[in-house]
Amino acid sequence: MADNDDEREWHTVEHSLTQFTVPKRYQNLSPFEYNSHDIVTYATDTNTGKKVTIRKVLKSFNSVARAHRTYRELKLRIHLNHLDAQVAQLYDVFTPEKDLNNFATLYLVENYVEYNLKEVIYSNVVVTEDHIKMVIYCLLRGLKV
């Protein structure tokens, strides 16, 4: 994971409701998905050729409660970040702001997954005992130090 330094080149992708300012290595941003906590886009990492998910965390530091929530989520994602665990892999964390006084935007770059657990739970797919065992195994594997 990298911090913001002058060596990164940035580009801004405009969308009707927001803009993403990301390092140039992330190209072909689309489509955008919105919820109350963040905006998600998909991109290609030109350094690896892999498809990634980029999350723009909204209002990360507007209140103490939001700042705590953002910190907890980031800490948990870093702790669960094991390559052999089948949970979201955190590839990069960055902000386009150049100084601490202007720090307001936080981006998380993760591996792209076609389906997430929420989508599976709310789908019409029958979740078997084997599925539940696999999910629990993956979560526990992510906790292994």
TrEMBL record:
| Sequence ranges assigned to domain Protein kinase in this UniProt record | 26-145
Q: Does the keyword Ligase apply?
A: no
Instruction: Write one Gene Ontology MF term.
Output: protein kinase activity
Keywords attached to this Swiss-Prot or TrEMBL record, sorted alphabetically, are: ATP-binding, Nucleotide-binding
InterPro entries, per the entry: Kinase-like_dom_sf, MAPK, Prot_kinase_dom
* Superkingdom as given in the UniProt entry: Eukaryota
| Gene3D superfamilies to which the protein is assigned, alphabetical | Phosphorylase Kinase, domain 1, Transferase(Phosphotransferase) domain 1
What protein name is recorded for this chain?
Protein kinase domain-containing protein
Q: Which organism is it from?
A: Rotaria sordida
